[in-house]
Amino acid sequence: MTDRPLQLRSQSLQAPYLDSDMQSRYFEFGEDTIIRADQYIRLTSDRQGQSGWLFARMPMTADNWMVPVPSTPPLRQVPDHPLQIEMEFKIHGQGHLHGDGMAIWMTEERGQPGNVFGSRDNFTGLGVFIDTYKNQRPGTVFPYVMAMLGNSSVRYDKDHDGKDNELAGCSARGIRGDEEPQPKRIRLTYFAENYLKVELQHKKENPDEWTECFETGPIKLPQTAYLGFSAETGELTDNHDIISVTTHNLHIRQNTGPDRSKDASGPRPGVVKSQPYNPGGEKERGSWRWFLLKMVLFGIVVVGGYVGYTMYRASKNASRF
Asked: Is the pLDDT of residue 275 over 70?
């Protein structure tokens, strides 16, 4: 149960978007992004080869979702209130084939264009992708919404629509539309060290109904993260429009119900099981073990060679006498 949410103005955005100097106080944008102050922020137009991004100027820190408490050592941080980000948007265009999609970011990096839905690869933090075109992912219905955690060394598997990178995801048929569809919404709720939940308002028959896409197990975001949005088109195209962004802290009332972080009754229906996430997994750990083993073997060879050479010189010098 929560108290009234506290809006974070520096992480929120509504029309008319720009101030009297035609700048945004809290956000900056780049590449092909255009702003129509009374209607939308268009990350890409319905044209080939476009990309655009929008990032907050100020980062969010652990203070936005953690609270310091006395402990031994004297101070530590524990989860206190979930962070909730809601984006109202439209993905739409003409023709029969559309792409590629858009992304929501909470990363250490900010405003760096790239080939992952218009933003850089090898990111550190969280990316939530609205992928509108299937490349090579049999058995999955598109459009598809998925989350990925990056640690600066793991690359997004674009050829297979992020299959090997996926933390959790769901199909979202109806999230884009032709011509001028009704706006859709996506809502992210992050409770540090507890869960990440993603919900959608995207169904034509019940446009105001929130549908849970997925909920993960514990994940941990960087201590400092920038909120951002990006989109791209390739040979296939779409308009990717942001209408509004609202970010809140949700303060939890104490002692009014069960503590989710201490619930040992097992996963609830609809919750995606997730271990604490290690991007790169066993491949990354295995590569380090192999590197260390090679260094040890190299050291043994060097030491052995030195000892052998020393013994050879000693025996050669002794034979002179």
From this structure: no
